[in-house]
Amino acid sequence: MATLTYRIGIDVGGTFTDVVCIAADGTETLAKAASTPQDQSEGVIAGLANLAAALNLPLGTLLARCERIVHGTTVATNALLERKGSKLAMLTTEGHRDVIEMREGLKPERYDLRLPAPEPLVPRRLRLGVRERLRADGQVAIALDQASLSAAIEQLRAEQVESVAICFLHAWRSAAHERAAGEAVAAALPGVFVTLSSDVLPQIKEFERFSTTAVNAYVGPVVSRYLGRLRGRLGEAGYGGAVFVILSHGGVAPVEEAARLAVGTALSGPAGGVAAAVALARAGLGQNLVTFDMGGTSTDIALVAEGDAALGRGRVVGGERIALESLDIVTLGAGGGSIAHLGAGGTMQVGPQSAGAVPGPAAYGLGGTQPAVTDANLVLGYLDAGNFLGGARQLDLGAAQQAVAALAEKLNLAPADCAMGIHRLVNARMADGVRVATVRRGVDPRDFTLLAFGGAAGLHASAVARELGLKRAAVPLFAAGLSAWGMLQSDLRYEMARSTLAAGGMPEDHEIASLYATLEADAREKMAAWYGGEIAVQRSADMRYGEQVFEIAVPLDDMDWTSPGLAERLRQAFHARHRALFTYDLPEEEVVLVTARAAAIGRLPPVASAARAAGAPAAPQGNRRIRLEAGDVDAPVFSFDALAPGQALRGPAIVESATTTVLLLPGDTARMNVGGWLEITL
Amino acid sequence: MQQPHATPAAIPDPVTPDPVTLAVVDNRLRAIVEEMGEAMLRTSYSQILNSSRDFSIALCDAQCRLVAQADHIPVHVGAMPWAAKSVAEAFAGNIHPGDTFLLNDPYFGGSHLPDLTIVLPVFAEGSLRFWSVVRAHQSDIGGATMGGYNPGATEIWQEGLRVPPIRLGEGGTLRQDLIRMLATNTRLPRDFTGDMMAMIGAARLGERRLQGLLTHYGAAGLDAAVSAVLDLSEAHARRILATWPDGTWHGEATLDDDGFDRTDIVIRATCTKQGESLTVDLTASDPQTTGFVNSSFANMRSAVAMAFAFLLDPEVSKNDGAFRPLTVLAKEGTVVWARDGAPVTMCTSHCSNEIVEAIIRALSACCPDRAMGGWGRRFRVAIQGKDARRPGRSFVWHLFHARPGGGGSSGGDGWSTAGEWHSAGGLKFGSVEMAEARFPLMFERHEFLPGTAGEGQYRGGLGAELSLRVDSDGPARANTAGDGIRHGSAGMCGGQDGRPHHYVLARADGTEQVLKTKSTGLAINPGDRIVVQSSGGGGWGDPARRDSAARARDEREGYV
Q1: What residues of chain B, 266 to 305, have a C-beta less than 8 Å from chain A?
Q2: B87 inside 8 A of chain A by CB
Q3: Which of A102, A169, A212 to mutate to test the interface with B (most CBs of B within 10 A)?
Q4: Is the minimum CB–CB distance between A501 and chain B shorter than 8 Å?
């Protein structure tokens, strides 16, 4: 037998580390290990050991035959959420040291005036003004004052900071002052992590740039140390190949880049799921998808439009603004573990409190007494108490019924109606979340397919899609481990951006051409250092009308870049995009080019999944009494794994696997796709 | 053609909706206003809407009761039903499906002239069922000064174009001639038209979503669910009120001046809490003024609702039910309720903020843990001039930087530079880099100003210091509009007042001029600086009770 080579995707979640391996023949194998929050690399190695065992190989042999590892990590996210990052300071333009604490005058929760103000990531005493100043055009108004810089550095030394963010006004225009200050800090304080705003996000708007840079300085040392440990452990275990990390924008980059721009890993966790959606879209699921990743405590919603994941720059993680291009994921505070209760306002609510893993839903029998969504689903018959997670966990139906009955009494409802109510309310909230997420992107969700994954999504997919007026939903068989699988489908990606502000709004043709040529050359050079294959470049521009303050991103890939009239073509592209998004354009108005962008993309060879073997349609493995809105029915129960490609089902029915359960409602028809997903037509 | 429908639907027979339907409808209504807000944000044209988010969205039922409102600018909370009522009265018996109504007049359900309100009737089963309402602040509304704030106005006609309730469109078609006439009366017709289209789009989205709900639940079923939602909010508010002691308390807040002959204009609130009800009596407030700090009736009602909402739990739904325990008494001809014809443009800031402050001050003796120190007052500066980098074009720049501080409370120290009572952290100031790139301005300094916050067990938030050099091409001119250089944000429950605003025009020749809050035509020469020291927030609780660790932190971090 020929020696197989492998590619491995590793997704570190809150509870489990999923490891997915795709062999050169397309065989997919999933292994799990408990996550190890103190040092995630331990859980990674344990997961790899389990994978090796599943493949019946020594770990060293598996790793020696492995040609690529792609990793999703929550180290940066956790450091930010738990405020366990490095001790950091900021050097900034004298007279402007409060930018990150002013937060542009905004405060969340409009009617909560007693809400305490957040602690700034960099305490005020460690935000040090340095005498220097650039004008908006990059000209020096006040030269970098060495005495002032030296004094600040002495203060950093005295405070023993681990990390320094250097954030000067207008540094997006000219990085000279930041570079000089950065070199001085590095020379005086060896070992300290230094990061410049002109490196992290060379774009106009100081709050976004400073905040993003501060986050980079905060999580940078932690992420660097972690990735160093991971490399070390993998090396000891026998791996000498490339390690990639999936970044917030859904592309992957080598570990060295992830360590340099650690803030770019803040959304690494959920990025894998969206990457998987993109891969499924390309595999024939359809160009327009709404991802619906319903887990225990929260649900992530993202859009894949025309085959590409929607990106945004408005992320807030742990209360901190991160303005890098990131997947535009909307997170709702409700999932399978969310608790149903009588809210202070007197109406039934689901979440945001969650039963978590411990005690978990009442049905887990670990002491939970309040009804979670999972309890309601069990009471309604959608879940099988004896076959939950493939029998890995025995559910306690009596405890679930008791918890639901207690809430039903408060609401003066029959227990079964209360369970139905919890299910309906969660569906309505999910549908509302999708509506807001899609209107924000300016699209009508009715043309989209709902792609449901995450343990809890399958029971709600059909109802949520119906509420939204969608015609199609899909649930991949490989629902668990989908994120890790998605990481293996992602391309290498490196982004370059540069703001520009010409007096007339739009630079001359030759200026635009040279700006993009420089960006593209830089991006290609960076990518070439990572990757030997063919490199594609995507160009886009952030533009706005003269008096607007929000730019919109305009893709420029199919534009003619050589003939005269380039500036005018950019303007026309903007008008068209504005029309598409907002229904109107203003052809007479000045168009301003604010930021030019180029992304170098290294297309990693796709890893095909093995086609599913054809077979005879599977018969139901039994029947179960379930409750639907119209009343009780006996529904056939199918094994998801046993469904043959092309096999058709008709609702009402239940489809179960070890990782997920799908509820088909009356009127639904479903077909098992050869690509490995159940396609539901509503 | 559809048949006209003269009257709102009769109140249906009580149908008791089940708790699940109730919860779903409650969530849907809130999601609809949120979605309308997102649409508005996406499509509006002017900076004041898409950046500063100075707009509000509401749904009212056929009785013009507030059903749901999106959380945007607190000063609009509770004001929107008055706009719907005004339309319902003006067009009683003559309201049809497909109609679009518009108003801005403060004496016909509006707040002040720059705020346009679109009111759309929603019909089902042959009767009017809901109103979809969108209010948004326009960049300009005509009148004597750019941007609508005219401190020299002594009558409303000098403040801009008055629009009583008008039918802007019928049968789903807008009157383009009317829109052109309105737009022509503003200095920024393109902004005006673009923003109005965005408002109509958002209102229509609300109508469409309500139609979905009406189809699903039937008109009677939805009415019943909405009524039950309102009843639950009422019960929620009353449960909170029941925990407050009964009694009567007085509170005052004082405006600096009206820009003419009056200084120290007092708003007086007498608040009586009894059982599960609250009466706010503003009748003892000073008479109306010559200048524009008067409030319209709807704006006054809104300010009272805002104060009440601030004292309740934040999760209470802001709808008609929540405000039912509240009775408001006021007298026409006072500064809180001016007679038709008086100027009112400043009222969404002043005297709104003073109405809130007087009420909070009165009730700080009743429910001290819920009261909060005063938030800052608004002091706007607009500069008009030329930029050498853009020959032939003039610029107008509005000051949103150097916001005042928020008030301290039992929850902690106040938010620094988070703004005023009426915005409460909801208005964003723009980027300094962007401002310098687009305007001939140099922000030499823009930082917290220690020492501005009112002391307290929990101190106020800090105000800011701004040193702004104007590098205009030739002389520029500035207008100011605001309040708060005599009176700082109020301390509450033993906390101290924040320091008042102090704005100075520091001339390149070394002379200085302290700026007044209500002035026009201020001459500025290139190289002159506007030096702003904005007010801090009011403190909460006796400063002697301030935690020593908090004091040490203030010292260490340079907040004092």
Answers
A1: none
A2: no
A3: A102
A4: yes
What pLDDT shows up at residue A567?
93
pLDDT of amino acid A612: 66
The pTM (predicted TM-score) of the whole model is 0.91
For residue A420, the distance in angstroms to the closest alpha carbon of chain B comes to 9
The span from the CA of A216 to the CA of A207, in Å, is 14
Residue numbers of A between 438 and 467 with CB closer than 8 Å to B: 439-440, 442
For residue A351, the chain B residues in CB contact (below 8 A) are none
Please give the residue of chain B at the shortest CA–CA distance from A136: B437
Contact list in A for residue B425 (CB cut-off 8 A) is: 105-108, 110
Q: Quick one: average pLDDT of A282-297?
A: 87
- Nearest-CA distance A630 → chain B (Å): 15
**Which pLDDT tens digit goes with each residue over A459-501?**
999 999 998 889 999 999 876 688 888 898 888 888 888 888 7
Residue from A348, A394, A345, A393 nearest A371 by CA: A348
Domains and CATH numbers, chain A: 6-79+225-265 (3.30.420.40), 94-209 (no CATH), 267-485 (3.30.420.40), 492-602 (3.30.1490)
Name A32's Cβ contacts closer than 8 Å, sequence gap at least 6. A16, A17, A18, A19, A47, A50, A481
Dihedral in degrees, nearest 10, Cα atoms A402, A405, A406, A409: -160
**pLDDT tier for residue A440 given thresholds of 50, 70 and 90:** low
Confidence grade of residue A114 (pLDDT, cut at 50, 70, 90): very high
| B338's tokens | 């001016």
Q: Quick one: what percent of chain B has pLDDT higher than 70?
A: 96
pLDDT given for residue B5 in this prediction? 42
- As a whole number of angstroms, the distance between CA B546 and CA B198 comes to 49
Q: Quick one: pLDDT at residue A315?
A: 82
**CA A637 from centre of chain:** 33
State the CB neighbour count (10 A cutoff) for residue B185.
16
The verdict on A136 touching B (C-beta cutoff 8 Å) is yes
Whether A439 has a pLDDT exceeding 60, the answer reads: yes
Best mutation target, B21, B24, B48, B469, to test chain A (most A CBs within 10 A):
B24
Do the beta carbons of residue A673 and residue A648 sit within 8 Å?
no
Chain B residues with beta carbon closer than 8 angstroms to that of A581: 42
Residue B248: its pLDDT value, please?
98
Low-confidence ranges of chain B (pLDDT < 70): 1-16, 45-52
